[in-house]
């Protein structure tokens, strides 16, 4: 009888997807050491992907890819600021914000779901998913019992619960488990905060097991774990890691909530590509010891628009690149990498005799093209809004702006040349004197001063054009307001009386751009071009990577879709453009470059590199 139970257990672990296809409700609970599905031990083999980073049209393809690699579960981060862009304004229905459609697809494909909704998630995402409108409150504190923060978080949880509740396993759905916060032991020790979050989810009808996720250290687990919640380890790669978690929070299952097949990359670095042999060794350990785990990430996707975050480690400010390829098993474009094939082979070797993993879906084709029609279209200087008067410069948030750019402009009275210092610039700026470019400032490199030359103008005009890049998403520097966050001084004199121009460069701003109709020479130019796609010659329905290596620093839009940031410091010189952003016939590409004054040819390539 024991041998029969053991054989059934192994079969259950590795064929769970087919069992899920059966009609009727299932149960999921926490045993003292195991997760229990319908009362039996169940090994979660999960692949993480994020609906917000993937066009909705590709969701099913990516889920099928995870299933074909051997996963029985999908784990998702949900980004608060992606669904509540302004206070009280929620979107759970349009495009890749339609979470219920994603949940439905996962269930239709016979996989389970783990939901990681924040309110803070990290994920190399802007402000770790917390909405930047909260930073308009000057003294706000995040990720604690600050009543302003908690009021907003509790409203978000109540609203998000309405989307999740129909898909809970307790309601016949596929959502097994929900994470409380994320890696809190790396940030703080407010157990009242964690307990309150858990309580709020329960009050809103989320009646499934919960878990926390922390690094496998004593202090992180002590500060971040919760009695009665499973323990996730980021990552759990040895028996010592699991033993420590069992000791710190006994009586609940422990799993590796983030097993890393790849890693993130910052601007100015080389692409990070971890060793696959170490990964296979770790996965073999997890499989041999029947430990549940989650690949973070199985597929990364893209930080479209202004969503890429930043770190603040020993090197200072470290903004993340636009691509979230992550060197993951499934590439940014959805392709099975050699890493994918190695993991598929390894996980498939644990299947019962005669069982095979499902086939991979067909890859989405890619398009190569050359766009030589790029021309200067207009200038930011010819599309300035009405200014706001400000005695001293303030950050973006003080002007009710979250993303994009702001122009700060003043006249020099008193000191008119010398050393200009921008205290706490966030994050990148070009500086102009009497309309002439004189240099740049860069938080990443710690450059916040520039020499102002002498001019013959009685009251020289100083313009500081500031780009807000990704907000910090991890550790202690989350309060990362954008723009000029303190003051500007010239030879120690504080400069006063500024005109401030809000330039969010959102969809509405780009749509309303008008041609300058004149020669453009001052940096801050929009370039525009067209390319034709035709179903008859097979150029539609294909993804592409837009190569902007001929440009310097800025943003690309295709048919109004913001592909994200580029920067010639690399390593990324190509931005992913899914077929879903393109259309039959004429397509428009727009580039805003902070430095460039001459147009360059653009190419569409088939790969990220």
Structure description:
Residues 1-22 have low confidence and may be disordered. This protein starts with a helix and ends with a strand. The longest helix is centred in the first third of the chain and has 18 residues, at 147-164. The strands form 8 sheets. The protein has an 8-stranded parallel beta barrel, surrounded by 5 helices. A 6-stranded antiparallel sheet has the order 18-27-19-24-21-22, with no helix packed on it. A 5-stranded antiparallel sheet has the order 17-28-33-30-31, with no helix packed on it. It is an alpha+beta fold. 20% of the residues lie in helices and 28% in strands. The protein is globular and about 80 Å long. The protein has 12 helices and 34 strands. The chain has 3 domains: 2-348, Glycosidases (TIM Barrel, Alpha-Beta Barrel), CATH 3.20.20.80; 369-378 and 513-605, Galactose-binding domain-like (Jelly Rolls); 384-503, Jelly Rolls (Sandwich).
Percent of residues in β-strands: 25-35%
Strand arrangement within the widest β-sheet reads 4-5-8-9-10-11-12-13
Class by helix and strand content?
alpha+beta
How many strands in all? 34
Oligomer: single chain
Tally of separate domains: 3
What global shape is seen? globular
CATH topology of the largest domain: TIM Barrel
- Low-confidence parts lasting 5 or more residues at pLDDT below 50? 1-22
Task: State Rg.
Answer: 26 Å
- Report the mean per-residue pLDDT as an integer: 95
Span of the ends, CA to CA: 55 Å
Number of helical regions: 12
The second-level CATH architecture of the largest domain is Alpha-Beta Barrel
- What's the CATH superfamily of the largest domain, by name? Glycosidases
Q: Tell me the name of the CATH class of the largest domain.
A: Alpha Beta
